[in-house]
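Table S5 (text form). Sequence records supplied for joint modeling of the four-component complex.
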Amino acid sequence: MSFEAKVHSLKRKGVPLTTQRYAVLEYLYLNHTHPTAEEIYQSLKENFSIISQATIYNALVFLKNHSLIREITIEKGKAHFDYEIEPHHHFLCRRCGHIYDVHVEGCPLEGKKTVDGYKIEELRPYIIGICPKCLSRSGKNEIPQ
Amino acid sequence: MSFEAKVHSLKRKGVPLTTQRYAVLEYLYLNHTHPTAEEIYQSLKENFSIISQATIYNALVFLKNHSLIREITIEKGKAHFDYEIEPHHHFLCRRCGHIYDVHVEGCPLEGKKTVDGYKIEELRPYIIGICPKCLSRSGKNEIPQ
DNA sequence: TTATAACATTATAATAATTCTAAGCAAAGA
DNA sequence: TCTTTGCTTAGAATTATTATAATGTTATAA
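The corresponding structure-token record, covering 290 residues in total, follows.
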């Protein structure tokens, strides 16, 4: 979904988008690197002379509740955020730590409303491994997780 | 894999299993509730008069590195652990907070070594939603995440 | 059997991520 | 304008996890 469409979808609901929340959504739109709340905070601090960490967290919850962004819990202990809400898998390279988008065809859950009586609201398909870059860089100095 | 088989697999490798590590593995074997490190600690404290939190964390890393247990990062901010390492999906009910096992047939990644050049080491297929119990209990007092 | 090395465990401190709290601000409605 | 409601802020508090340093345990070899 385009940035404008997301902003509009809130307007249609009559939900006002504050400057700070707009800035967080825009940051995610411009940076498809699956940043953490902390990374967003550090970057916005420079543009916004005054913005607090709590506001970032609040904005992320707000945007997530309106299904404009999604949360990625692939990494232990911290959350990453993704502008892209269309279904796709995430891959965490345990060597370089980067999170990549991976498109996997034929997922039997895609589009389903329930499974075994469980109501599906969100899919979080994660894969852990080594990315192609790290695989080619060297096959030896592997850091066990 | 049976409990005895897991204990044996370490012996075969020549890796000794200390009392504390044995206790953590046994706890996970007896409690298929996907506990957190803290829950394991609280329970083992009562049986073991002396055991420290750090030992629990160390034991969990140890067992995970030997592929005897797996880590679940479905919930933001904290890790859960699972005795069962055979591939299956996990479902987090956002109303009651419980994590359930769900078997999904036909996953295109199951058994695969790579995807798009990415080396697959571990699959973490998570689903968020409402469990059947919470669905039947009431359809109204839903707590937004 | 002792000495030694290697590793495990402990308590505690430190760090990191997130949430809570209380006060101030700002927009919207009466 | 006054009031209400919700947002933002700074900072404190909480929670989960990891690091550190001292101590304990075990296995092996002199």
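Note: The interface with chain A takes residues 64-65, 71, 73-79, 89, 91, 93-94, 100, 102-109, 115-132, 135, 144-145 of chain B (CB under 8 Å).
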